[in-house]
Amino acid sequence: MIFSFLAAIGAGFLAFLAATGRLFLFVLSSLAALFRPPFYFRLLLRQVVEMGYFSLPVVGLTALFTGMVLALQSYVGFARFNAEGSVATVVVLSMTRELGPVIGGLMVAGRVGAAIAAEIGTMRVTDQIDALTTLSTDPFRYLVLPRLLAGLITLPFLVLVADVLGVFGGFLVGTYKLGFNPAGYLDQTHQFLETRDVVLGLVKASVFGFIVALMGCYQGYHSRGGAEGVGQATTHAVVSASVLILLSDYLLTQAFFAR
Amino acid sequence: MSAHAAPKISVRGLEKSFDGKQVLNGLDLDIAEGESLVVIGGSGTGKSVLVKCILGLLRPEAGSIRIDGAETVGIGWAARQRLMRRIGMLFQGGALFDSLKVWENVAFGLIEGRGVERNAAQEVALSKLAAVGLGREVGELYPAELSGGMQKRVALARAIAAEPEIIFFDEPTTGLDPIMADVINDLILKCVRDLGATAVSITHDMVSTKKIADRIAMLHQGRIIWQGRKEEIDRSGNPFVDQFVHGRAEGPIAMEVRAL
Questions:
Q1: In what order do the strands lie in the sheet with B166-170?
Q2: CATH value at residue B35
Q3: What is the ipTM of this complex?
Q4: Which residue is closest to B161 within chain A, CA to CA?
């Protein structure tokens, strides 16, 4: 009884280590592809457009509403100890440091990570990835690398837009609903904001973009078993990317704040 | 081509298992240059695994695969890529890239694998499409807009586009009506003859086998249990082969199925 319990723990732990190792090898193979010609610039561009431009509506809307809610909630809280004046500062710091990158990352995980996993997974189960190899083309260079780089490059720009719209959402609620003076609100917004706040948020965004693309590619590449397998790969891609985004968000925040 | 000429492809002691299940079990097979060999065998006997091992898509646990005398098991990516330029493969489901137009599919190996200029590659692709009986207008369509038979023909055009020395056909006629299957068989014969290529096909379609094969090998329980010229298969004297060729439920193969 006790041994089977321990065996279950051990088996689970070994499976975890094996999965981590596989993921690490996958990343290494992708990075190795970076140093072998040719480089598919057109494919990278297409992924940037797909990931960045077409994610603008969903990321923009969620950021706008997040900023609006943030203004309302922080006003309610701060009014209890007469600190309503800090609403603008709280909105801009929360958006740039934390909510912009995280919400942007999670929305892109749902929209783009799932699409990547489904596309590459379908290519896997219909032998298209094997076909690439037989046509002298490296699937890592042709499929995986453009997506990873696109994630790395695109998310910061997307999150910059999210930051601006989030602050704008807070501004709308602050001036129209809470009765702030518009000039005073804006003044409050950049009085305590440092360049560092925005830049570190964008660094986070870049990491999250890489995670989303990596989990999509990895789950898709290793999917098997027809339509059901592709469905599972898609689910796993979104769930694992979301968890990893929040986990790495904590680690990055701690690393940035320690100094 | 004398009987003593070195084989184009030489497989020795090939072993491959999945999750503890032994699929290939010390398989030996020689394929001569310019011949058309058909490997027959029931579903799940490892025919596809054999081809994927030769192509390097799967890594065997033991054994050697020599092409033109050079070992190919465990070679690096660059050497594998050079080798792939001499090989064509027709996948069972076609495996056409559905994000690319038909002509881009056919020209893919030329453009991406060999760095041929796009316009030149397009001309080659259109001539290969014509060779499999498809007009220029088909080149502008996407694979999803084609029927199953047309997809097979496009996949065949893609496999021969780079004029390979060796071509693999994985179940070329599966899922096609008998007439379209015969069209594909004729195209395979014609393409292989025009290129002078070595052809390796895997199938369980005996009509197709008898049409495209010079030589036939039967795979059973991870080994080649019989091989010989096409004319010899009806008097092989091997009960496994007889049962398979005549498609009988009763026989040594079915016995083993029941024993499980």
A1: B87-90, B166-170, B198-203, B36-40, B215-220, B223-229
A2: 3.40.50.300
A3: 0.87
A4: A135
